[in-house]
Amino acid sequence: MDHPEGARETGDGRLSFDRRVRLEFHGSKISSDGGLLLFRELDEVLGLHDIAGGFLRDTRTGHNRLHSLVGLLRQSVFGRLAGYDDVNDADRLSLDPVMRQVVGGRAVEAKAASASQMGRFETEVLAATDNRTVLADLSGHWIDRVHNRKPPKWITLDMDSSVSPTHGAQEGTAWNGHFGCMCYHPLFVFNQFGHLERCALRPGNVHSADGWEEVLKPVIARYADRHLMRFFRGDAAFAIPELYKTLELENYFYAIRLRANRVLQGKIAHLLKRPVGRPPKGVKRIYGDFQYQAASWDKPRRVIAKVEWHPSELFPRVGFVVTNMPMEPDWIIRFYNQRGTAEQYIKEGKQAINWTRLSCKGMAQNEVRLQLHALAYNIGAFLQGTDLPDEIADWSLTSLQTRLIKIGARVVRHARAITFQLAEVAVSGDLFNRILAAIHRLRAPPVP
């Protein structure tokens, strides 16, 4: 049955341009997030939240346990995926028919969790030390499940930091001169599929590579037993001798940018002389390849230099990359330049999931919010990685949110069936079913 509060008409009005038009509002019968049902099916096919239920510890007692821990986690994650980036909308979403179906259990016949219930869940239950550790590991467990269904031939890890502006006296907030604001300074590791392998929330005034061991080493450990090629990319902030040694020990090929210095410039002095003759009409690229050992390094390493002469510029643009790859210099530079995709993934997370929305006062609670945003982002990225129809194969996460998730849906309940009548505007019924078929192809093969 529909929830009585949501089923009543909450308003009635008419429009002046056509008096025949009448407005009615039925909160528990109509939803604007019909596409979430697809992502809930993806969750079911991969068993994502079942993994979470096996690790999270439930600290609730008494009447606080109206909804299961997995149901509350689904409400947190799928709400963020649909664009509701905190618990402020939970009271209205608790009556939404799609959200109730996504949460499951008691919510289907009654209602989902309220704002106060969700607030306690995120700031108390998940903020417990054990559960924060589980949340930090959960994205990796989910990615392993996806890779078990579609095994990759190689893995490329991109590490980068970002900014989350803060407001007021939030714990851990600090001024960051590079970003020019009071902020947190989170650290991210992505793979080549756009999956967020792991992230960590850090105070705003730490170095870009601060705490890289706690973020990168668990990811390296997860791939240790897989038979595949391994690659790593990072900007100049991650040009750290201990990082080189860790990657070499774990058989990773790496390409990491080096900051220019006098010794490096001297190694390519012969490439910095302006070419004789008329300036070229296009960009002229020259590569250098040499061995170099900084004072803090334990051994010499290969360094690739790229020198670019642009027609309208007097001096060349110079960049250095330290690597242990045996490929040609131009291939290595192209490989390193693809690191920019990680910046696009961060941009998608900011725009679609709004993972910079960390408005709690405590650092632990904001860490929980960041990990919930990461889980929501990964569910969207998992759908992008399926064999989607050509019409939407290149849709960004923002497009999936605004055009696929935001489908109007009307629920019709019968004794033995629950029917969602979906609008066909950006996504037709045929396209919707083909997306659903792509999700079902991820099912594990039957056990003989």
UniProtKB/TrEMBL annotation:
InterPro entries: RNaseH-like_sf, Tnp_DDE_dom, Transpos_IS1380
Coiled-coil parts of chain: none
Residues in Transposase DDE domain copies: 16-443
One Pfam family it belongs to: DDE_Tnp_1_4
Protein name per its UniProtKB record: Transposase DDE domain protein
Organism: Thalassovita mediterranea
